[in-house]
Amino acid sequence: MVLSAGSRSKLWILMITAFIDMVGLLMVIPLLPFYAKTLGAGGLVVGTLIASFNVAQLVSAPMWGRFSDAYGRRPALLVGLAASAIAYVIFAFALSLPHALFFLYLSRVVQGAGGGTVGVIQAYVADSTGPEERAKALGWLSAATNAGVALGPLLGSLTHTMGPRGPGLFAAVLCTLNIVFAWRFLNESRDMQEAAESKADTTTRARSRDAIAHVVSHSSAPASRLIWIYAIAIGAFQGVTSMLALLLSARFGVTEKTIGFFFAYIGALSVVTRALILGRMIDRYGEPRLARMGTIILATGIALLAFIRPLADPAGVAAMLGGILPARAVALLPYLPLAIAVAFLPLGTAFTFPCVTSLLSRVISSKERGLYMGVQQTFGGVARVLFPILFGFLYDRSSGLPFLVSAGLVLFTVYLGLGMDGYARQDAKPAAA
C-alpha cells in the first residue's frame, strides 16, 4: 500500500521536525558516558543519568497525551521542543559549573519532560494516515529519526573539538531553528471538533490512571499485550544501549572522538532498513509476524555483544595462520562480528517497534489514541528507568551480564506476541476489547 498524497505531505513535514530534533538529541547522548567518566562515575551513575531522562518522560507522557487530545498535537510538540532547547544549554555549561553531575542530571530531566511528546508524534501520524498505512508511515518517521541518529553523533564528536560546550550549544541552535520550522509549517492533525466534544463530556473523558490500571488488570487484552511487548523490548534495548559506549570504551578503546562513528553506523542502517526494507517486509509477512522476527533478531544481536572481544595476541594468531595475514589485519578481525552484532540492533528494532505501535493504533479508538499512545510511552518509560539502572549495576560486576539479561527479556516478548495475528484485522476497536 502506497501512502496517499495528503498523508505524504503531512508526514514529510513531521519527518523533518523529528529528524532535526533527533540530531540534537544524539549529539549529546553518546557523550554522556564520557562526561560521567571524567567526573569519576561508573556504570551505575551512567545508568541513572539515562534513567533520569526517562523518569521525566514517564511522568510527562500521559499529560502530553491528554493535552494533545484536548488542545491539539501541534502546541504539545512546540512546548516539547522548547524544553529540549533549554536542556541543551544546561548540558553545554554543566561541566564548567560547580556540582557538574547535578547539572548533567538536570539537563536530562528537563529534556525528558519535553520528550514526553513521543506519544504525541505517534498520534499525529495515526491521525494523518489510514489503518493500513500506519506501520509504513511510522516506519518512515522512524527512518527520519534514525537519519538523525546517524548524523547527530558525528556532529557531536565534531563540535566536541571546539570544547565541551560545543555540542550542547550547537544542539540548542538547531532546536531553536526547529521550533521556527514547526511553527511555520506543521499544521494541526487533531479533529478539534472531536477534541471539544471530548473536553465537554467529562463523564466519558479517559483518564491516564484508568488506562494504566486497565493495562495492568487486563493484561491479556489486545492493547495491554501490545503495550507490555513494547515496554519490555524498548526497556531492554535502551538499557544495553546506555552501556554500549562503556563496553566499547573498555574493550575497544573507543573515545568521545570516535563513539560518533558507531552510532552513525547504527543510524545509517536504521534509515536504510526503515525507508527501503520495512514496507516490503510488512507486505510480505504482515505486522504481527514481522514484529516476532524483529524481536528474535534484536535478541541475537544483543546476546552476541556479550562475547565479542579484541584479540589478546594478534601477532600470535597471525603466526598460527602461517603469516597469510599481517598482525595488524588480524587485529581487526573481531570488528567483523562486532559490526554484525551491532547491525542486528537497528534491524531488529526497525521490524519490531513500528509494527507493535501500528497494531496498538488499530485496537484503540481515535478518541483515546493519544492517551493510550501516551500510556504506551509511560510503560516504556518505566522500563527505560529500571533497566539502565539495573544494567549499570550489572555492568559494574561483569561487562557482558547486562547484554545477556537484555537478550532474555527481548526473547520473552516473542511469547507475549503469540496470537497477535488476529489484531491486524481489527480497526479501532475499544481499548477494553
Walkthrough of the structure:
- The chain starts with a helix and ends in a 17-residue tail after the last helix.
- It is mainly α.
- The protein has one domain (5-188, 208-425): MFS general substrate transporter like domains (Growth Hormone, Chain: A, Up-down Bundle), CATH 1.20.1250.
- The chain has helices at residues 5-28, 32-38, 43-71, 73-94, 100-114, 118-128, 134-160, 166-185, 192-200, 208-217, 222-252, 259-285, 287-305, 314-320, 327-331, 335-362, 369-395, 401-416.
Tally of extended strands? 0
What oligomeric arrangement do these chains adopt? single chain
Radius of gyration computed on alpha carbons:
21 Å
Low-confidence stretches: 202-206, 427-433
The whole-number mean of residue pLDDT values reads 80
The major sheet is characterized as: none
Separate helix tally = 18
Q: Classify the fold: give the CATH topology.
A: Growth Hormone, Chain: A
Q: Identify the CATH homologous superfamily.
A: MFS general substrate transporter like domains
Number of domains: 1
**CATH class value:** Mainly Alpha
Q: Any guess at the CATH architecture? A: Up-down Bundle
- Terminal CA distance: 27 Å
Helix content: over 70%
Shape: globular
